[in-house]
Structures are given as C-alpha cells and as structure tokens.
Write the structure tokens for this entry.
Amino acid sequence: MLYAIKTEVPGADAARFVFDPQKTYGGKGIAAGDAIFIFASEIEGGAGLIVRGVVTAAKAIPRKPGVERQTPLVSIAVKRTAHAKRRLGRAELKPFSDWNDGRPETELNFKFYRQATNKIAGLSEEAADFLEGCF
C-alpha cells in the first residue's frame, strides 16, 4: 500500500523523520518498507508536498480502554528518498473539489484539506502515480 502524511515537519531537509502518534485515514496498516509522501502542514508553516520516503518503523498506539470511538493512531519513522521538485499544496489542490470526479488531485484535496487535521492516509495507485510526477 502507498501512503501520505500531512503534519508539522520540523527540519524539512532532514534525512530522517520521526512522527509520533498521528491520526490515520486509511493508514493504520502502515508498516516498515512502505512508500510514503510527506506534506508539511501549511497551517503550521509548511509548504505542502516536500519529500518522498520509505517507512523504517511503524508502531500502532493501543486504544484506551473504555472509550468507544477512537481514531487509530500510529507512530512512524521515515527515511527520505527524494525532495519534491515542484510545489503541491493546499492552493494547488483547492480547485479540485468535485468529490466524485475520480481525479487524483481531488482524492488528495479530500483526504488532506477538506478537514485540516494532520493525518496519515492510504492512497490509491492513481494518486501515488500523480505524486510521483512531483519528483
């Protein structure tokens, strides 16, 4: 499976990143060896898509007992494999808001910018192929 994460990214030029408990949106199955695209959250001063990497470690956070509805949380470590060559963020994806058009841009806008929360998301192959074009 292919994944993307949108979160605060301190040190965007780092060779390795650690992201402690992150919400997931189709991302709870992430594991070491999976490809991941990293979006630096613009709400927290980032620039959108910045890096492609490979997950080097993933750990699911246990659910709290007695709480019925809980968003799955996962901590991950990532090794950078490439820097994005073109900008792709909220401004570039905002025009793609026809949620049923099947476009990869729309999938990314829906998963990352419809709600501003940071998260790890599972991606379709079409969305991952589209993101590869940014590297």
Summary: The chain has one domain: 2-132. The longest helix spans residues 104-113.
